[in-house]
Each structure stands twice: as structure tokens, then as C-alpha cells.
Amino acid sequence: MLRDLLSRWPVVRQIQNRDWKATGETAMSGQTRDLRARNVGAEVTRSICPYCGVGCGQLVFHKDNELINIEGDPDSPISRGRLCPKGAATYQLHTVDSRLLKVRYRRPYGADWEDLDLETAMDMVADRLWESRERSFVEKQDGEWVMQTKAIGHLGGATLDNEENYLIKKLFAGGLGMVCVSNQARI
Q1: Which residue among 27, 79, 127, 132 is buried most deeply as judged by most CB within 10 Å?
Q2: Are residues 13 and 51 located together in one domain of the fold?
């Protein structure tokens, strides 16, 4: 019994195995010996980080139609396995438990939030956007055609990808005449 107890003591194992740095088997418990990376057995798909124009490479690990992990691609000639904080948080962005999956709305002067269906919320946004544009749209200024509104602006967030930002710019600037269009990613 005492021998069994001593053999489990890391210092005794270190002496017996002549592992003076304690970096090998002597440093491991049964629990650490059985640890495996969460990516083991997962399929890997190469991708590109969607959050800016740099195009850093990402490895997307998935198994049984479930996202396992996302990390930098060491074979990417652009990023060589490195990701900025936004790119490094791609996995958490998609899997965090606190991610809202419904539209929350608080009425003007209201104190409580309520759930809205997506169709109702989109109609409200579209109606308010169009009403503001109609009220503030300027066709000519100082005899020149400007076809713009300065009463509406758009600031895109860091979770928008390049394609979404392109479409937003085309719709808001070209279609609606907004001149105040920017994005957090450029800051």
C-alpha cells in the first residue's frame, strides 16, 4: 500500500524514470494522459476570415454537421496561421450561448423589451428608413444635381463580411442616396 502510494507521487516517478526536468510521463496524471485535442477526428475545411479585406486563412473544423473549432491556417501565405482578435473569435461568435436568435424591441419611452418576429421588425426598419429619406432627400443643391440625403447614416459592424459591406454600400449610397456610410472595420 505504501509502495503504491509512493509510486503515484510525481517526485518518486521522476527519480525512477530519471526525468529530471519532469516534462515527460512523470509529469502526467491519468487525466492529462487521456486528454485529446477537440479537433481530433474532425473534418477540416479551408476558409477565409470574413471580417476585413486582408483575407487571412482559417481552418474550420467540423464533425457530424457541428462546428468544432476555427483557427488560423498556417499554410496561408497572407496570415501564416495568425488571426486578429476578430478572426480569432469567429468560433465564439457562432457558438456563444448568449447569442440572440430573435429580434428584441423597446418602444419609444418604453421600459420593457419585447420579442418581435423578423418580418415585423424588417417592415418597421424599412418604413422608418424610407420616411426619413423622403423627408430629407435633396435632388439639387446650388444648381448642381446631388441626389443625396444626409439625414440617414450607416455604420457597419465588425461581424459584417466583405460581401455584405459591398451590398450595403451599393444599396445605401447608390440606391438611397446616403452619403454617411462607414464601417467599424476601417477604424
Answers
A1: 79
A2: no
